Amino acid sequence: MTDTRIQAALWWGGVALVALFAGERVLHLEWAAVAPSWLFLLTGLGRSWLLAVIAIGVGICAAFPLALLRVYGPTGLRHAAVGVIEAVRATPELMIVFWVYFTWPYLVGNQVTAWNAALGSLSVIAAAYLAEVIRAGLYSISVGQIEAAQSSGLSPYQTFRYIVLPQAMRNMLPALIAQLVALFKTTSLVYAIGVMDFFRAVNVTKNAVFAPYALYLVLGAGYFFSCFAITRLVRWFDPQYQLLE
Amino acid sequence: MALDWSILWQFRQALWSGLLTTLWISAVGIIGSTLLGVTIGCLSSLPSLLLRRLTGSYVELLRNLPMIVKLFFLYFVVGLPAIPAALLALSLHQSAYIADVTKAGIRSIARGQIDAALSLGHRWPQVFRYILLPQVARVVMPPMTTQYVSVVKNSAVVALIAVQDLTFETQQINVETFRGFEAATAATVLYILVALTVIGAMSWLQPRVVVRR
Amino acid sequence: MIEFRHVHKHFGELQVLDDISLRIAAGEVVVVCGPSGSGKSTLLRCINRLEQIDSGEIIVDGISVAGARDIARLRAEIGMVFQRFNLYPHLSVLDNLTLAPTKVRGLPKAKAVATAVELLARVGIPEKAAAWPAQLSGGQQQRVAIARALAMQPKIMLFDEPTSALDPEMIQEVLEVMMMLAKEGMTMVVVTHEMGFARRVADRVIFMDAGRIVEQGPPESFFTQAQDPRTQAFLSKILSHV
Fold first, then answer.
1. pTM of the entire structure?
2. Across all residues in chain B, what is the average pLDDT?
3. Chain C partners of A1 at a C-beta cutoff of 8 Å?
4. b/e code C206-218 from CB counts within 10 Å (16+ = b)
């Protein structure tokens, strides 16, 4: 008990010391050089958020049919769904970004803008991971629930619509939001095809003005607090939830 | 535009050396992140508030930053050479997740095991080495497999600081021949094969660490 | 051998040990009983610092437990047996018995094995050395757990409800091993509701309630002339169905 109190004091003392020391250093970083770019950087952060939110939206729309096929689909389609989901999940996210950007012209015949390629690839990634989240949600409903519903005369569709889906949605909500954290971090990869997201905005600024530490502090803080905020949102929905991305 | 798969044969040397680079970087990343992550996970399981706070901060900080931010920070700001920066970034990044997996595994083991070991006079390092980790190994094999596949996938990012891995070579082929589609297909197939190898290796390992109950 | 001096401990608001003072001599067998939540298990777990105390002092074999720099060395001298056995499921019975002697005491493996085999014979299951804990009955597991604690050649043995998790037909085999130990002069602190054991083996019986020692005495007088109404109520409940 007393031991715990000493350790708590040590911790907070350490935090205060680090804050004091680091705070002093931080104040003397190259802020004057960075200040004029604040709107540019903020726009970049906004663009990253926009990418993540749109891709999650598109991803959910694509993930539902994929998950349903994987769980309820006829054999052939089921295997196809498994193949697509697992292939995407086993491929590096950066490769998928390149894939969409470089192979789109072959498949469609005309060029694709980097922004659309970014949105497309992030949506594909989101769809594959969310399909697994949805599948886990569907499997989280016990057989007893389904038997109870069917024995009370509900059709298979009604069972799904009124019994399975509402419960599954509730169970999968935290995991859905957790995917937003993962996806938000993944947006940083579209840097590679030239989209002016937060990561590229910071690095472009870094090449223009000499302020590496200040800029990387902004970079880290931007990602950290964005992800941290989403994480808190998950905890708010489910305090027990273990974030697994 | 017609596809030309012969391009792959032409660039087989580049693809092969890229694959080897990806393999060894991933292997070092897997070993590094396991050593770091398991250590942090063990420390976070000790009955010490200070250690819990410290390891918790470590995990929270690393989990909320993208891999590419760590990589560029180590390479461009700290100024490490490309390969050490790549290995360190990969290890640090995944260690946070592996720490959480380890911590959850230890928590799943009955508290009585720790009581028994301590009451017999074992010190904490021995408690982890002989009693907890052998039992944890069994439960964490499946989540660890996911983590190791992630290391392989994250290793692609090191191409962006010009480490000549599989992704980098693919980009080179695209630049030289504009055959991005063929190159990306080949690389993707190779990445999936590496992921399958990791999964296969782990499921081969699984029964060998199984604990009798 | 063991001394409590004004020991206090609380979990949050709950006072689990309230000004406990107690002396246990070498070779003494003390049975601790009381209703659940009375603090008897906590009392036991404080002796080898599996629980920390808030104030007061516990002295074991001349060493202050709270201040002990090297708690592991002290724990090695104090054997403990748990309600749920807590055998290591990933090790064979023999390895369960030899792990601490080899790793903590640094004994050569061959010597540890010889001691282990001898101990398994003493607790009556020499044939189970190669078995896995999961293959044993509860009674056998608990006897292995006792042997595991004895393998460290402790000066004191602590028993935390050693028969509470056992099926009735297995209780006797465990109690017999404990009686054998008591006869050999081991210092023992036993938390149990086995009043038959207390009557036959204990030098002293302690009754705890709400973190305090309510009453104590030799078994003859404890069972027949309990003074405190709480002790009487407890005894009447526990003895009526024996």
1. 0.90
2. 92
3. 52, 54
4. bbbbebbbbbbbe
